[in-house]
Structure formats: structure tokens, C-alpha cells
Amino acid sequence: MKRHMPLILMFAFATPMLAQYESNEVVTFNQPVQSDGEKTYDQEIRRKAAEGDVDAQLVMAKSLDFGIGGRIDKRQAVRWYTAAAEQGDAEAQYYLSIHYFKGDGVQRSVQDAISWCRKSAEQAYAPAQYSLGTCYAQGIGMNKSIEDAADWWKLAADQGYADAQCEMGVYCAKEDTEWRNPVEAAKWYRLAAEQGNARAQEYLGKCYYDGEGVKKNYAEAVKWYMMSAEQGNPHAQNNLGVCYQQGHGVPQNDEEAAKWFRMAAKQGHAIAKGNYQNTKR
Questions:
Q1: Of 2, 132, 68, 24, nearest to 80 (Cα)?
Q2: DSSP per residue over 196-225, as a string?
Q3: Residue 179 banded pLDDT, cuts 50, 70, 90
Q4: pTM of the entire structure?
Q5: 37-60 burial, b for 16+ CB within 10 Å, e for fewer?
Q6: pLDDT digits over 245-258, tens only?
Q7: Where are the domains positioned within the chain?
Q8: DSSP at 21
Q9: 160-281: what fold?
Q10: In 3D, which of 234, 222, 169 has the Cα closest to residue 195?
């Protein structure tokens, strides 16, 4: 089974529901060799890709997309993603959808992006399922529907995809949704938080702080706020500052409170700015 890559930022105008993408997956092919003064990719991989080998096509696409081997060529990356996607490869379909969403190496087309994302999602590729759900949630390329969004998020969440698990927690926490259940919300937050998802860690901390879906426990709230805050989440930083200011779950400490308020304020967190100003009076 192919490993899921980190979620990609599909739209330049997307909300923080979509995370910035990167490639930290090791692609196995020989090191590039010199040919006429230019770097070229392993000829065996290139030959297999030209002959229609899907795995080789995907390697070619990723190498050109992410500059593995030193060369970046988005148009050629799209060409190889397309070749693999048209043979039904779900991962290639997902990456191709991203290029259409961004207009990266191909003319931007939201409809083509949605089409390829859906093909991938229907093959149970979790990043595509999450992204398609986000499109429904935001009404991008389709009628907005939080119910349809939740259906796709649930499929990805059940595969252990942390971003989708966090969104399921948010959905289950809402007052006006059919799945309203604070206990379920806390469960989904925990699953994502344990994978290091900063938003989920913040939300799980708030569950413990407020006693929503779990027994109120300030020390547990601080634990999860701290994990999220250390990843740079300004909301968690502000909440952690409140805990220090009030002595909730930690010894009361105005200096620590001010430190976390200041960190959040520097990121533009309006409430933290006010809280920080108050600590200096």
C-alpha cells in the first residue's frame, strides 16, 4: 500500500483547513547522471515510464514536481501525473488535481481539479477524500454542503488521516449538525492530537478546560495546549497564557502568561494582544 503524502495546499485562497504541502517521501531511483552537461533521470525509470509503467510514471512526476535529482519542471510533472492518472492511479489523480487547482504547470481549472480529486477519493485515497470534503465545506466547485463534507471526512478519518479526524471533531462539536456529540468530538480530537495535529491538540485542550465530552481537568488542558502552543498555534498560546494567568492546571505565573500572550499577539491574535497589554498594567 502506498503511503499517504502530507496534505497539499490545493488553493491559493484556501482557509487553514488545508495544510501546506511538502514532499518528505523518499523516492527510490538511481542518482541522476551527467549527459551533455545536463542532469537526466535514471534511464531505466524513464524507459519504463515511457512504456506505460504506472509506478515509474509516478516516480518521474514526483521527481520533476519536487526537484528530486535537482530538476523541477512542473509541465513535465503534470504530463507524467496525467499518464499515471489516466491508468487509474489514485495518488497520481490526487496530485494532478492539485496542479489543476493551483494552475501549476497546467491551465487552472477548478472543475478538472474536482474531477480528478473525486476519482482519487472514490478509490479510498484519504488525502483526496479529505480535500473533497473540504471543497464541499467551502463550496468550491460545487454547492456547499457540510453534510457531504462530513461524509468524505469520515471516510478519511476512519483511515487514520489526522486532518480529517480533526474536522470530524469540529463537526461533532457543532450545535446544529446531525452528528452532534461532544464525546465523539473529543474522541476524534484525541485521535488527531495523538498524531501531532496542532489544531486538534488545541481543541482537545479546550474540551478538558470546559469539560465538554470529557471530565473537566485543567492539568490535561494545559498538557494539550502546551503541545499545540509549542507548534506555534496562536490560539493555544493565548489559552495557555490564560491558564498561567488564572493558575488553572499550572502554578499561577504572570511572567509565563505574558510570554505566551506575547507569542500569540505577534501572530496577530487580537484577544492575545489585549491580554498581553493587560499584563503590563
A1: 68
A2: T-HHHHHHHHHHHHHTSSS---HHHHHHHH
A3: confident
A4: 0.82
A5: eeeebbeebeebbeeebbebbbbb
A6: 999 999 999 999 99
A7: 1-159, 160-281
A8: P
A9: 1.25.40
A10: 169
